Amino acid sequence: MKIGIDQISFHTTQYFVDMAELAQARNEDPNKYLIGIGQKKMAVIPSTQDSVTLAANAAAKILTPTNRQQIDTVIFASESGIDQSKSGAVYLQSLLALPQQVRAFEVKQACYSATAALQLACGYIALHPDKKVLITASDIARYGIGNAGEPTQGGGAIAMIISKDPKILALEAESTVLTENIMDFWRPNYATEAKVDGHYSGHMYVDFFDEVFAAYRQKTGMTLANFAALAFHLPYTKMGLKALRSVLPQADAGTQQRLMANFEDSRQYNQIVGNLYTGSLYLSLLSLLENTNTLQPGDRLGLFSYGSGAVSEFYTGILQANFKAALLPKLHQAMFAARQQVTVSTYEQLFQQQLPTDGSTVELDLSQDPAQFVLTGIDAHQRQYRKQY
Ligand code: HMG
To answer: Assuming Cys at both sites, which of 7, 148, 185, 252 could form a disulfide with 62, CB separation 3.0 to 4.6 Å?
Structure first.
């Protein structure tokens, strides 16, 4: 039985900051951000959006009257969770008006957790072939104003429906995983911004990729020539390029050219959004599939998932017969086109508008947020959400 990604969608906010402008404001050469980091625009997240609303806005794009009845599991993957106890998935069930007969829960392991959710969902569907699983991968990447991590911020959410006979990508059974307890990036409970050992994290990312890819080659006998494209977790797009370049010498010239060309398609969306942690690999997959003119049904894709701390996995999937028809490029491109550029100083103000952490009540100004699902405030320690249309 084929099992995998049946549908996939993306949502981000209405604001972005231009990376050349941000570089100028930080007295950096714009090419450091544009080429050295590989980012053009960075999503800016207003306080009326959190990991729950971003996920709901993404998921609403792929829910239909039919699949609503088949989804019996909702998995919320995030490292920007809004509560230590209650899962974001329970809020999603209610905001999206999904049937109450679902199991809803949250998973966490830095940027890796959506891949954990995907693998678990595939195993679950193998036992329950008539069911579907909704996965959301939703995060807001925050390092702080003026520090080295700043140009690698961003935010948004991916939603995916996992089922048998998937319309987009059927996963193959073999994968290789690696876990090692390292301190490259983490966020203590008291912190709203990540702690990071930036250069070390980049080295570990490439080391983990080299190790899981070598293990995959050894396990399966496959080489780079077996892949039409590789998609990477992209905290910033230069990171994936570094990992790809670390293995390209293993390939013949034609394979190198193909993988490089497909990498360019796979980073287009990430270059104009930034990091969305759990969703970044899947935004890259979406970018590849919606921008490619060369990939064909039957092609094999390799996917590298990395979550600091650290857990990584290399796995593969086969493109399905009508994968192009199942995608939503017009919807995503219209969302990108409607975004509004903000100045660096407006971005800084929006970044600093954090919700109170002392339990006080707050009512947010919703007049600027065009999203379907918004956070309206906090009352009696409870987040208040609204569906605007
Ligand atoms: P930095 O130290 O300011 O930058 O921070 P740099 O000096 O290393 O320069 C960056 C690149 O720009 C270098 O290229 C420079 O040569 C180049 P590289 O050597 O890397 O190929 N450069 C230029 N290029 C063209 N023209 C110029 C120019 N000037 C310089 N004029 C750093 C960079 C990424 C360290 C920082 O932004 C950071 O700490 N980011 C956050 C950490 C991160 O994203 N790590 C990625 C791996 S860990 C991961 O992926 C997991 C994560 O998503 C979290 C999770 O799992 O939850 C982060």
So the answer is: 7
CATH superfamily of 3-168+328-387: Thiolase/Chalcone synthase (3.40.47.10)
Cα 278 to chain center, whole Å? 5
Phi, psi of 286 (to 5 degrees): -60, -45
The catalytic position among 233, 290, 313, 332 is 233
State the closest ligand 1 atom to the C-alpha of 275, by its place in the atom list counted from 1. Answer: 53
In this prediction the ipTM stands at 0.99
**Best CA proximity match to 273, nearest among 261, 260, 286:** 286
Q: Is 11 a catalytic residue?
A: no
Structure tokens at 318: 């086969």
What stretch(es) of the chain map to CATH 3.40.47.10?
Answer: 3-168+328-387, 171-322
Is residue 39 classed as helix, strand or coil in its secondary structure?
A: coil
Question: What average pLDDT values come out for the chain (389 residues) when binned by 10 residues?
Answer: 98 98 98 98 98 98 97 98 98 98 98 98 98 98 97 98 98 98 97 96 98 98 98 98 98 98 98 98 99 98 98 98 98 98 98 92 96 97 97
Ligand 1 centroid distance, CA of 319 (Å) = 32
**CA 387, chain centre distance (Å):** 23
pTM over 0.95: yes
Name the CATH topology of 171-322.
Peroxisomal Thiolase; Chain A, domain 1 (3.40.47)
